[in-house]
């Protein structure tokens, strides 16, 4: 065996690895006759022994217990999260994304339904019997919830307004400054006003927009519907026009002519964005 | 290097992903030492080694799906992650490494003071270990990797090649070259000591005076 051949095998020889028996015998014979290669082998064996000493010396080196604690905490956090299966990562990731998207859509739909129902249930002065396509005004019962927690919902009678005659108009009447001035409640946003037009009492002026409508109809100041009579600021509002039985005005704490208790009166109820009736004003 | 867990790699990961603490704890305790030592031997800093160990197992918990059994076993996968983490940390913490090495050197001397029965033998052994550690740390990174994996973690060339993502022949040639460099450096240290370096005696005096 030449020195070059020995060099290619010295590593296996020094590390005591399995090697061809003939090769091993040849390498050992070469060492006996070549001082340089013998020194080379001695160096390599010394190095191997040094490595073994390091392995033994480092055997007890481990990470601190703190790491295990941190990792176990992380594992518990993920306990209820399902990791995709391992076999086909791409397919699993694809399905994972689809499942996530589907779950998000379902959650959004449920949230929408819940919000809609909640909003509907919180509507304070709900027009009842609107399906009756008649201009005849009939007293109906609706609930006006007061903002005061302790106050019980007040039952008031309001007029039936034919559904098809309810229309939405954008009214500059509800400009925040004017609205705030009239109601004494700070209002920032303008909202769509729902104008209900009852048959005989409807007036063409109701369809007008702008300050003229107020002037022609004649509106009283807003009266707070809070139990304690105080006003509180609202961010935005919605005006709902209703027809009330005059007798119900008394239940709202408004002055009422007892002789005309059987008549109806038109009013505008200011709803805050949470659907609570904040104030009311009468239309003359 | 084969896992002694009763579960296959896939089953083990599935259990870990499902929050099986016993499976994780068992696997962690079995494997964390190797990962920690690999990081320590690669960078010479116990703090970095701890961080790397934590990151590797954290990745296993959070991204178990990234393991591809067709590319190697789970242990090789762990070492591969540890290697990437170490490389990142080494690039980031070059400045810290010098301090850590100095600290380790002091620690080695301090440990020498705790030598149990035969202080001189123990001291010699610790000096040898410290010398080898230092010599390994001075190797270029691609040589250091193969020395740590093949010599200090006793991996086969094929296993090391799996961790490093290179050919077996590459591992073999790098190891050959790395051992040559180490032999030279250790010989230089021995020669220096033989020529009158009194450092071991100084340490001994410091311990026993």
Look up the CATH topology of the largest domain in chain B: Arc Repressor Mutant, subunit A
- Helix share of residues of chain A? 40-55%
Mean pLDDT of chain A: 66
Which spans of chain B of ≥5 residues are poorly predicted at pLDDT below 50? 105-116, 202-209
Task: Estimate what percentage of residues of chain A fall within beta strands.
Answer: 15-25%
Low-confidence stretches of chain A are 83-91, 125-175, 179-215
Put simply, the count of helices of chain B is: 10
Overall shape of chain B: globular
CATH architecture of the largest domain in chain B: Orthogonal Bundle
Helix-strand sequence of chain B = HHHHHHHHHH
Widest sheet: strand ordering of chain A: 5-8-7-6
CATH superfamily of the largest domain in chain B: Winged helix-like DNA-binding domain superfamily/Winged helix DNA-binding domain
Intertermini distance of chain A: 122 Å
Structure description:
The complex is a heterodimer of chains A (284) and B (209). Chain A is 42% helix and 17% strand. With 284 residues, chain A is an alpha+beta fold. Chain A has three domains: 3-58; 74-120, no CATH class; 125-283, no CATH class. In chain A, the strands form three sheets. Chain A has a four-stranded antiparallel beta sheet. Chain A has a two-stranded antiparallel sheet with strand order 1-2. In chain A, a hairpin with a 4-residue loop joins strand 7 (264-272) and strand 8. In chain A, helix 1 crosses helix 2 (21-33), helix 1 runs parallel beside helix 3 (35-58) and helix 2 crosses helix 3. The radius of gyration of chain A is 43 Å and the shape is rod-shaped. Chain B has 209 residues and is mainly α. Chain B has two domains: 1-92, RNA polymerase sigma factor, region 2, helix turn helix motif (Rna Polymerase Sigma Factor, Chain: A), CATH 1.10.1740.10; 95-209, Winged helix-like DNA-binding domain superfamily/Winged helix DNA-binding domain (Arc Repressor Mutant, subunit A, Orthogonal Bundle), CATH 1.10.10.10. Chain B has helices at 9-17, 21-43, 46-62, 74-92, 94-113, 119-137, 141-152, 157-164, 168-194, 199-208. The N and C termini of chain B lie far apart (45 Å). Classes of the chains: A alpha+beta (284), B mainly alpha (209).
């Amino acid at each position: 065996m030449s020195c070059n051949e020995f060099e290619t095998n010295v590593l296996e020889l020094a590390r005591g690895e399995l090697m061809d028996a003939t090769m091993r015998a040849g390498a050992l014979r070469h060492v006996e006759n070549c001082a340089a290669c013998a020194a080379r082998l001695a160096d390599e064996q010394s190095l191997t022994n040094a490595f073994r000493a390091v392995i033994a010396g480092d055997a007890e080196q481990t990470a601190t217990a703190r790491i295990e604690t941190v990792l176990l905490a992380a594992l518990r956090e993920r306990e209820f999260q399902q990791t995709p299966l391992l076999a086909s990562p791409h397919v699993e990731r694809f399905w994972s994304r689809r499942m996530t998207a589907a779950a998000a859509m379902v959650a959004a739909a449920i949230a929408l339904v819940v919000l809609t129902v909640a909003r509907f249930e919180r509507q304070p002065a709900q027009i009842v019997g609107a399906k009756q396509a008649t201009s005849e005004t009939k007293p109906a019962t609706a609930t006006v919830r007061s903002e005061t927690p302790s106050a019980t919902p007040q039952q008031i009678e309001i007029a039936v307004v034919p559904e098809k005659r309810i229309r939405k108009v954008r009214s500059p009447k509800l400009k925040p400054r004017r609205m705030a001035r009239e109601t004494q409640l700070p209002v920032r946003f303008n909202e769509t006003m729902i104008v209900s037009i009852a048959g005989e009492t409807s007036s063409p002026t109701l369809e007008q927009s702008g300050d003229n409508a107020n002037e022609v109809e004649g509106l009283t100041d807003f009266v707070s519907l809070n139990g304690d009579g105080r006003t509180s600021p609202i961010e935005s509002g919605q005006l709902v026009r209703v027809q009330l039985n005059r007798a119900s005005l008394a239940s709202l704490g408004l002055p009422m002519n007892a002789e005309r208790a059987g008549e109806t009166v038109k009013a505008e109820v200011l709803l805050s964005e949470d659907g609570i009736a904040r104030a009311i004003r009468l239309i003359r | 290097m084969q896992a002694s867990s009763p579960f296959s790699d896939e089953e083990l990961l599935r259990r870990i992903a499902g929050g099986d603490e016993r499976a994780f704890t068992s696997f962690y305790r079995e494997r964390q030492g190797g990962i920690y030592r690999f990081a320590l031997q690669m960078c010479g800093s116990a703090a970095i080694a701890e961080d790397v160990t934590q990151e590797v197992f954290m990745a296993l918990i959070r991204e178990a799906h990234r393991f591809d059994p067709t590319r190697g076993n789970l242990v090789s996968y762990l070492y591969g992650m540890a290697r990437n983490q170490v490389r990142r940390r080494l690039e980031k913490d070059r400045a810290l490494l010098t301090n850590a090495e100095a600290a380790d050197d002091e620690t080695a001397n301090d440990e020498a003071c705790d030598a149990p029965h035969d202080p001189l033998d123990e001291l010699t052994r610790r000096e040898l270990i410290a010398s080898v550690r230092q010599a390994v740390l001075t190797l270029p990174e691609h040589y250091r990797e193969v020395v740590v994996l093949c010599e200090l973690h006793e991996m086969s060339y094929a296993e090391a090649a799996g961790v490093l993502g290179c050919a077996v022949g590459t591992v073999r040639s790098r190891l050959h070259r790395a051992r040559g460099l180490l032999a030279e450096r250790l010989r230089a240290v021995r020669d220096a000591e033989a020529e009158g370096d009194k450092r071991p005696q100084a340490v001994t005096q410091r311990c026993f005076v």
